[in-house]
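Quick one from the shared queue. A colleague (R.T.) flagged THO complex subunit 2 N-terminal domain-containing protein as missing a structural entry in our internal table.

Convert sequence to structure tokens.
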Amino acid sequence: MSESVASEISKSWEKSGKSDFIQQCRSIVENETHLVGGIDRKDAKRALYDVCWLALKGSLKVEQTVGALTEVMELHDELSSVLADVLGVLVEKRKEIEENPRIAV
């Protein structure tokens, strides 16, 4: 999801953004039995990262994000592992930003 797509999803979250995000995740995992090491894992990471980043920036409410992520986790057994990876990256990025406020958000 590019920055402009993420921005559009956050603006229209209530109307269609949430369902667009869930549909995007559904299409990523639709025919996959395993995400580990596959190209679809990269796509799944990107989609989850973008939505989590929008929540960290305050563009989405945390409750909205958690609700959507809860729905998405039900789509595939391995998505919880992918989300754990994404959250680890975001924790490190957040620490880096706090240590160096000049980093663009």
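The radius of gyration is 14 Å.
The chain has a mean pLDDT of 86.
Added to the table.
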